[in-house]
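Researcher: Next sequence.
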Amino acid sequence: MEFIVRQGAALPEFVRLVTQADINRYADASGDYNPIHIDEAFAATTPLKGTIAHGMLVLAFISEMLARAFGEAWDEFGRLSVKFRSPTRPGDTLTVSGQVDSLQAEGDIVWATCALWCRNQAGEAVVSGEARVRVPVSL
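Model: Next structure:
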């Protein structure tokens, strides 16, 4: 792990510029070709007034931050619960951050519960939530 896991510890921030090319590549990888994501002319006629990133693409950024913080423990023992608050648009710069809220022992296993935020360049929350991950007992 790249940081010391303790209550109140900030998770290492992750910053990512989202481009239409990123969204198009995600559509190719996922098979989700909903025009709200990839058809700029169509999306401009909707209440959203333009294309938006797939929610799962944004969650991938959150997962990447958690993997950087917790390594393989995140892949093997991580759980995520989030709320989508605002769409992510091409050109948005997202900052993913979080904090260890608590450490809880369950027998010989210790779990870290972390608050998470993903904000755009204007500071608006696009996603918020919580992650739970198993951490080494040597805490």
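Model: The first helix runs from residue 20 to 30. The mean pLDDT is 93.
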